[in-house]
Amino acid sequence: MPTSFQRARSEEQRAQRRQAILDTASAMLTEMPVAAVSLNELSRRVGLAKSNVLRYFESREAVLLELLDVAFREWLTQLAPELADEIDPGAPVRERGDHVAAVLAASLAARPVLCDLAGAQAAVLERNVSPEVAAEYKRTAIRNALDFAALVRKHLPELSEEDSLRYAGAALMVSGAVWTHAHPSAAMLAAYEADPSLAVMRLDFGATVREMLEVTASGLLARRLPE
For 5-15, how does the pLDDT look when each residue is reduced to its tens digit (9 = 90+)? Predict the structure, then answer.
């Protein structure tokens, strides 16, 4: 049920209003894909006119970019103990590389909202924002990628800082791209059902991400480790 708001008159009230918009959009993402989240429905659910929502966020995409940052930070916080629990620091480096890939793939598969937002980032979410919002998002994305790379390097210290950042970047791009292909449209699902020979094109998200990250880690390590 939408919330009824009085006019925000203080900075605290404005911050509360802004957070309510984010919380409402976040709840919507648990019910529907990113593509189905509209500014009209968000406004209705939060109990504000669309013009009032736009006082706090310049577009639907600006709301979703902020949620992507929040989801990514939450994931990194949860990923650290997941990796620590699963990775044996005394295992051979290639085995650790495969285990890191497995943990990342399973962890991402358990976070569909993060993957859906990541899949929409470059093609959709970054297309309807101002240069100011775009720049601020990219600053936070760089910080997040550096933190992610440092977490990877903690378990794969054989990687250089530069290569760990390459690995982190590959993991982010792969997860977003594979998520999109692993969740085809209704028309594509109907085509797969009608002609099972086409189903080979449908990707399993977890298995595909894991395999691609295993290959990425192996390639980066092979360039640094002695023959």
Answer: 555 567 888 89
